[in-house]
């Protein structure tokens, strides 16, 4: 069984990741990533996850479906492909609702590969 992820809990945590994080967009989702070690060197724990599905995605039913799909993907892929001490925010898009799950999986893998690629450090 895959390791459970920790979650971002407060608005400040989400704003820090969305405001400072590296970004990569795919047809099915947008990812924002920030290393916690930059601010808290002693905090190299498990990856943390946050999910966002705005009203642009659709009704409450559609937003909940997007979050369930993104959560399932993250729980499957981040324990293996994520980095310790890193915060991830997955942002749903309107295409996330209807996109095939295998395509979403590939979107997330591609996005993780791109944001973890050497040389893609955050520039102030």
Question: Could you characterize the architecture of this molecule?
Answer:
With 124 residues, this protein is of the alpha/beta class. It has a single domain, classed as Ribosomal Protein S5, domain 2 (2-Layer Sandwich). Helices cover 38% and strands 20% of the residues. The chain contains three helices and five strands; from the N terminus they run βαβββαβα. It has helices at 11-20, 60-81, 101-115, and strands at residues 6-7, 22-25, 29-35, 48-52, 86-92. Strands 1-4-5-3-2 form a five-stranded mixed sheet, with helices on both faces. Strand 4 (48-52), helix 2 and strand 5 form a beta-alpha-beta unit. Helix 2 (60-81) crosses helix 3 (101-115). The mean pLDDT is 88.
Helix content: 25-40%
Biggest beta sheet attributes? 5 strands, mixed
* Bulk shape: globular
Number of helices, counting only DSSP H or I runs of 4 residues or more = 3
**Strand order, sheet with most strands:** 1-4-5-3-2
Number of strands: 5
CATH top level label: Alpha Beta
Features of the shown structure:
124 residues; alpha/beta; Ribosomal Protein S5, domain 2; five-stranded mixed sheet; 3 helices; globular
What order do the helices and strands come in, and which of them pair?
Blueprint: E1 6-7, H1 11-20, E2 22-25, E3 29-35, E4 48-52, H2 60-81, E5 86-92, H3 101-115
Parallel strand pairs: 1-4, 4-5
Antiparallel strand pairs: 2-3, 3-5
């Amino acid at each position: 069984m895959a390791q459970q992820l920790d979650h971002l809990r407060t608005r400040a945590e989400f704003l820090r990741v969305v405001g400072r994080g590296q970004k990569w967009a795919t047809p099915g989702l947008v990812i924002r990533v920030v290393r916690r070690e930059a601010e808290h060197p002693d905090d190299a724990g498990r990856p943390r996850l946050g999910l966002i599905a705005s009203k642009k995605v659709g009704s409450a039913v559609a937003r909940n479906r997007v979050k369930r799909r993104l959560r399932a993907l993250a729980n499957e892929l981040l324990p293996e492909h994520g980095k310790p001490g890193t915060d991830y925010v997955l942002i749903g898009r309107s295409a996330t609702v209807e996109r095939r799950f295998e395509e979403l999986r590939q979107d997330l893998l591609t996005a993780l590969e791109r944001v973890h690629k050497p040389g893609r450090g955050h520039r102030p």
